[in-house]
Design brief:
The protein is an all-alpha fold. It is built from 15 helices and five strands. Helix 5 packs across helix 6 and helix 8 crosses helix 10.
Length: 466
């Protein structure tokens, strides 16, 4: 039992998991001991730095969301992957752990024997998806080995399919085909990219600006420094919600957030802390990419030929830093619009949950959607794509609640779109078919990419080689 717990913790600790992947890759390339040690440690270090930056961002952005709710006196369900997963693990720990561990093996098998050559390295997101799958299958009445087998196959499929969907956009973002996106917000990232394509057709494409081409007057040229511009823009946002909360009807709740600090100084410090988090994340991503891509070559050559590492969403942040902030703000506004839509639907008599804008989800996912929209449609694509993303994650989170069983009554839910889409689709299929029927459907879906590779895909490859 202790060995099983150790393996679970090993695989669910992203930094260590990344280090193991780098170690295996370097050993498979028969690198010397010095290179192996250096590459392994720097891969772990890069992810630890990235994670530290993400923690700093969350520390600064969560109070912003809380102050927003206090300022405008709104209450409802706040989507948060970590919160709902912690609740799910209290009830479905064995199912989630089993799906998580076996699902990673299914990912490697599917990548090895199909054209979906992606190894999903965002271990925390794999754990969240394992928990979601366990919840919906358990709520549908599935039990025992069938639940674990169905869930593992479904997780392995998700870990290959979603990076494949994003790869054309990732090539546009990075300028090459070496990296993939391993983050379960793919459906809306893809949607944002498509909206970006549409926006690129408006006006003169040759004159279209990307978020990184924004020209600042000489008098404010200091705004070209991303850290400065992010600090100032976040200060404006923080200032608005902080002043309303501090002098509003709920000033007592606001004071608890300020923890005795002056509201103005608090807003100033949190804004700069947010910018510092972005700076740390970018540094960590650059180090991680510099080490993991060469190390992954060993796995690509020996275990899964032509495989690509699918990494967490901050991987794309350095390619368009301005789009990160613009995407977050646009997505947050979209979340407010989505909240208004749900409120209006509630007034018509429909039983809908009020989904509040979760600042963490709108930052990390909204920023990524902004980068995707920018890659396809420049500044206009970034704004429009991230805005639609904000609306979509709000409405999808509301639609997911009914299939979560008892956890649908919790004060939180899954935040990112792929969790919602997988939960809604398979949760409703589970209501229409028997457990055996759902098991068969998932097996067929898992085997389809492999069958394609050894039939149609192989014939297509031969024709291209000729």
């Amino acid at each position: 039992m202790e060995a099983l717990q150790f393996i679970k913790e090993l695989l669910s600790t992203p930094a260590i998991f990344i280090g193991i992947i780098a170690l295996i890759g370097l050993l498979l390339q028969r690198k010397d001991a010095q290179t192996v040690v250096k590459g392994t440690i720097k891969s772990i270090l890069g992810f630890v730095i990235l994670n530290a930056g993400a923690a700093v961002i969350q520390q600064a952005i969560i109070p912003f969301g809380d102050l927003f709710q206090i300022s405008f006196n709104i209450h409802g369900v706040v989507p948060n992957n970590e919160a709902i997963t912690s609740l799910g693990l209290t009830q479905y720990a064995i199912e989630t752990s089993s799906i998580f561990a076996i699902g990673m093996i299914m990912n490697i098998i599917l990548a090895r024997f199909s054209k979906l050559k992606y190894i999903f390295l965002s271990g925390h997101h794999s754990l969240y998806m394992s928990c979601l799958i366990a919840i919906i299958l358990k709520s549908a009445g599935m039990e025992g080995w069938m639940l674990i087998a169905t869930g593992s196959l479904l997780l392995g499929l998700c870990m290959c399919v979603f990076p494949a969907i994003m790869q054309p956009t990732m090539r546009k973002i990075t300028g090459n085909d070496t990296l993939a996106l391993g983050h379960f917000g793919t459906c809306c990232y893809w949607l944002s990219a498509q909206i970006g394509k549409l926006m690129s057709k408006i006006g003169d494409p040759e004159k279209a600006k990307t978020t990184e081409d924004v020209n600042f007057p000489k008098s404010v040229s200091f705004l070209r420094d991303n850290s400065i511009s992010i600090s100032i823009i976040m200060f404006i946002c923080y200032f608005v919600v902080a002043i309303i909360a501090n002098f509003g009807a709920n000033s007592g709740e606001a004071a608890a957030i300020f923890k005795g600090s002056n509201w103005f100084l608090y807003a100033t410090l949190q804004s700069i802390t947010f910018a510092a988090g972005i700076y740390i994340v970018l540094a960590g991503v650059r180090m991680l990419i510099a080490e993991i891509v060469p190390a992954f070559k060993g796995i690509s050559e020996k275990v899964v030929p032509n495989a690509k590492p699918a990494l967490d969403c901050p991987t794309v942040f350095p390619f368009a830093p301005n789009a990160v902030l613009i995407g977050f703000l646009s997505s947050f506004v979209g979340g407010i619009v989505g909240l208004a839509v749900l409120a209006l639907l509630g007034q018509t008599g429909l039983a809908v949950a009020i989904i509040l804008p979760g600042a963490v989800a709108h930052f990390f996912c909204g920023a990524t959607a902004g980068v995707c929209g920018n890659a396809r449609g420049g500044l206009k694509g970034c704004i429009a794509g991230a805005f639609v993303h904000g609306i979509a994650i709000t409405l999808l989170a509301a639609a997911l609640l009914p299939v979560l069983g008892d956890l649908g009554f919790a004060n939180t839910t899954f935040a990112d779109t792929d969790f919602c889409v997988v939960g809604i689709v398979f949760g409703n299929i589970a209501k229409l078919v028997s457990s055996t029927g759902l098991f068969v459907i998932v097996i067929v879906l898992f085997l389809l990419p492999i069958a394609y590779n050894y039939t149609i895909g192989r014939k297509t490859g031969k024709k291209e080689s000729k």
